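Quick question, first post here. What does this chain look like in 3D?
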Amino acid sequence: MIDQEFHKIKRLPPYVFAVVNSMKAAARARGEDIIDLGMGNPDTPPPQHIVDKLVETVQNPRTHRYSNSRGIPGLRRALCGYYGRRFGVDLDPEREAVVTIGSKEGLANLAQAITSPGDIVLAPNPSYPIHMFGFIIAGAAIRSLPVGHGEDLLTAIDRSVRHSVPKPTAVVLNFPSNPTAQVVDLDFYEAVVDYCLNRDIYVLSDLAYAEIFFDCPPPPSILQVPRAREIAVEFSSVSKTYSMPGWRIGFAVGNAKLIAALARVKSYLDYGAFTPIQVAATAALNGPQDCVEDIRRLYRDRRDVLIDGLEAAGWSVPRPAASMYAWAPIPPAFQHLGSLEFAKLLLEHANVAVSPGVGFGEYGDDHVRIALVENRQRIRQAVRNIKSFLANPPTTAEQPRIRAVAL
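> Answer (accepted):
Ran it through. C-alpha cells below.
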C-alpha cells in the first residue's frame, strides 16, 4: 500500500460539521428524537406545478439522453427573463448565462477555471465554505474579510488589496449572507464595482437567497450596477426559492469572459443536469410566482417562532431580515467553550442540532447557525428543550476547552 498524502487533500482541514453529524446519527440510532436545525436543507416539497412538469417531461424517451453542459436553451432564456423582471438587467442567454449543477458546483468550477497556484482571492469570514475552499482546492491563497466584527467590509477589502502580493484575482461576496443573514443595498455594490474596476479585480457574487427576505427591501443584484458586467459574475439557484435543493440546478450570469471560462471547464467535466430537471426548473422560473411568496411567508413565520421563543428562554438572537438562518451569538455563560463544544452540548442535552459557527471560518466561532428547516411545532419543541438546557446547564459546561480549528 502506498503511504502518500495528496497535496490538495492536505490543504483541507477536518470538516467541523462532520463531528455534529456523527453525533446526530449516533443519537438517532439510539432512538433519540433529534430536532435538526443544522443543515440548510429545505424540508417542504417543491410547488406541485414544477413536479408535474418533471413527471410529464420524464415520460419522453428523448429526454433521457445526454443533456447540454451549458444548460438547455429554454432554461437559459428563462433565467435571463427572471433577471429582466426582478432586477431590470438585460442578459444574453448565449454569452452571459450558464446552468450549473447547483451554485456550489458552479463556484468550484469557476475557481478551477480562473485560478492558478499562488493566486490570492478575498473571501468573507465567516462564509459558506465553498467560497473559500473552492479556491483553496484550485491552489489559491485566501485572505479573509472579517464580517460582523466592527470593520466596514469595503475597508476590509481595501486593506487586503493594499497588503496582498500579488494583487488579488477576485473577491467573493454573498448577500443575503450564509451564515450571518446580513444584507446590503445597491450603494454597497456600486462602491465595490467602482473599486474593483479601477484595480482589475473580478467580483463573484453569490445571490442564492435573493428571494428569502422579510423585513428589508428585495435584495439587489450586483449586475444592476452600470459596468458591473465588465468584472462581475453572479451565482443563484432554485434550491431555496422553490424548495428544490436535491434537484441541483444553479446558474451563473454576468461577465462573458468568466461565463465562457466556466462553460469550457464544465464541458470537460459534465453533460449538464438531467434534461427533465432542467425543463422543470424552466417551469419554475416562467410559471406562477405566488409559490415564492408562500415559501417566504413560511420562513418568516418560522423565524418569528424561533426568535421570540429564544428571547423568552433568555437567549437573545438577532432577528434575521433575510435568508433561512438565524446567526446566534453563543450565550455569555458558554462563550468560553467555542461554537463546536456549545453545539455538542445542545445536541447532547437539548436534542437540538445546530451548525458550529467555526465551520464557516474562525471569525464565526462565537456564533452558531440555526436553520429554519423544521415546522413551527418542531421549532417550538426545540425552543422548550433549549430553555430547559439553559436553565439547568451541565456541569461540564463550566470547564474551558480548546477551541476547534476552523474549516
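Residues 62-286 form a domain with the Aspartate Aminotransferase; domain 2 fold (CATH 3.40.640.10).
The first strand starts at residue 35 and ends at 36.
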